[in-house]
């Protein structure tokens, strides 16, 4: 007889397949809408090119001229997207005009650029060249250099650097000939977040074992050829020392005069610099280099931006660095670059514009503006109202400061409908504008609910949703722990080292909050988990999981559809010569049924599978007593789809025992179309799971209520 099979909305991954009767237990690229599953919408690449580095910041806004902008911050560049094109607005740190600057070697792709003085550029920084005059005896010309971005390959000394060309020198080799203008961009940071190596450790770029220290006996210039210590007797005969942020290699230790000589300044891609008398000198001979194995729980910070807009001005902050502004209404705006905000703190983890009062708020910032060493991870500053440059509190302005008390650092903040939500690593605070004399009030509203990563929270309709180290939370005026039927699946596999790559995105079109996160062994987001706040009820929270990988997301409020970015660490298909950081692709979502990249459409292979269902002794499905007591025989399946485009595949997965491997019906899987009335099958099993999927282009489906022709078939 024909029997309906119904399943509760959402995935339940907290049970076995057998325990998931009447439920969906797995799937990919599906969502629930009005209680029934469907394949997600497609996505298509925006713009003709990919972007250098990993994008982890995406912000949409509209200028007063009505022009829509998307701002994107990668670990190397700051871009705006408008009218189908990308524009590089990355701020410049310096511009230097050089003559007799180039050295090349025949059959080698390396070009050495020599500066007249210390350049302050590090390995992996980005430079841009123009006004190139051809180098004698070289095949490289203006076409190879003008208006071209290069990633610096190495920094042999404080006055030289190298870049790798796309091809080798075919001439005899240039020697100190050729002129160029070199523009140096602000350094944002590495693409990856890693454990126990590199940025942010005790020493710049690493750490040392058996640390020894002494002090300088006399100041050093960037060109000094020897180092005099108060006492060099305990230092190795040859090795490396660290002074401030410069590593210096030496070949000779003359203990009678306490002198280190045979120097290589700016070793290991640091920068030669001047150092004051009595500066600390650290023996770094046992230095643990970037990426080398090291015991410890220190996590290095990736290069990140935070983005917001102050009216027509984009506010972009390098995390733990400076803040910049870019005026969208300026003449020729897309051909101008962001510039440093004068008077603004120079070391800040995040900036945010408060509304409607319009203060620029800096989180995790300096107690003394302009002194980066005073950065306090729990300290908050805000500017005077309607000002980006006035930060000193006075009796006649609204600038001010506040230090939070619970936690060790401010992880992230978002703007809500009537407040700013601030998360530390342990707690949630609410910041509200109250006017004079205090300007803002601060209230702690939650504990043991800290934010897992800087971008792991969103706000919608007055409610904040976020991911913590120990679960998912919501704040609606009171703190709630979100029940989650996929929680173990997510937290048992998530890689928490690159936690600042975790990104929460709102898709208001479908009532979804999605967290994109890196799975075990991955340094990039390669999985996602979605909470459907529109379909969820007190009785059942609707969650799904997916392999959709996105590094940033922005809702449809500006462009009409959500936009997102995808990062590929292995790609070099961008405009930066020598790029080793990978590339980012920018997409519009909820468009069509395919994924389109570089003009090529490929299928989105979506699927959903139920838990096992079986027969009771009365011959009834789902919930009868003594379920699974008898075998069942399935002769027909009557498919039911609310919508169906193209071909959809239906599979009956058969088991006799819970530990059995799934086996498909002998006549299946079944490829059906909108005109398919029934599926004839020969299936016999104690338990059956239903799977719906697709494999081809332009296919879409939304599942209704299937009916199966089932009869009892004995107990063996």
Task: Describe the protein's architecture and organization.
The chain has 716 residues and is mainly beta. Among the domains are: 2-42 and 605-712, Jelly Rolls (Sandwich); 92-185, Elongation Factor Tu (Ef-tu), domain 3; 207-284. Helices cover 1% and strands 44% of the residues. The protein contains two helices and 66 strands. Strands 2, 3, 56, 57, 60, 61, 62 and 64 form an eight-stranded mixed sheet that branches. Strands 6, 7, 50, 51, 53, 54 and 55 form a seven-stranded mixed sheet that branches. A five-stranded mixed sheet has the order 12-19-15-16-52. The longest helix has 5 residues, at 487-491. It starts with a strand and ends with a strand. The model is unreliable at 196-210 and 287-298 (pLDDT under 50).
* Rg from Cα: 30 Å
Helix content: under 10%
Give the count of helical stretches.
2
By CATH reckoning, the class of one domain would read Mainly Beta
How would you summarize this macromolecular structure in one to three sentences?
The protein contains 2 helices and 66 strands. With 716 residues, the chain is an all-beta fold.
Question: Which structural traits does this protein have?
Answer:
716 residues; mainly beta; Jelly Rolls; Elongation Factor Tu (Ef-tu), domain 3; eight-stranded mixed beta sheet; seven-stranded mixed beta sheet; globular
Question: Which helices and strands appear, and what pairs or packs with what?
Answer:
Blueprint: E1 2-5, E2 8-11, E3 23-28, E4 30-33, E5 36-39, E6 43-45, E7 51-52, E8 55-62, E9 68-74, E10 78-82, E11 85-88, E12 92-98, E13 102-104, E14 110-114, E15 126-133, H1 142-145, E16 148-151, E17 154-157, E18 160-164, E19 179-185, E20 207-208, E21 213-215, E22 226-228, E23 239-243, E24 246-250, E25 252-254, E26 259-261, E27 264-267, E28 280-283, E29 287-288, E30 305-310, E31 313-318, E32 323-327, E33 339-340, E34 350-353, E35 360-363, E36 379-382, E37 400-403, E38 410-415, E39 420-424, E40 427-435, E41 439-447, E42 457-460, E43 463-468, E44 471-475, E45 479-481, H2 487-491, E46 503-507, E47 512-517, E48 527-532, E49 542-546, E50 552-554, E51 563-568, E52 576-577, E53 583-589, E54 594-597, E55 600-603, E56 607-610, E57 613-614, E58 632-638, E59 641-645, E60 648-655, E61 663-664, E62 670-672, E63 679-685, E64 687-693, E65 700-703, E66 706-712
Parallel strand pairs: 2-3, 6-54, 16-52
Antiparallel strand pairs: 1-66, 3-56, 4-5, 6-53, 7-53, 8-9, 9-10, 10-11, 12-19, 13-14, 14-18, 15-16, 15-19, 17-18, 20-29, 21-28, 22-26, 23-24, 23-28, 24-27, 25-26, 30-31, 31-32, 32-33, 34-35, 35-36, 36-37, 38-39, 39-40, 40-41, 42-43, 43-44, 44-45, 46-47, 47-48, 48-49, 50-51, 51-53, 54-55, 56-64, ...
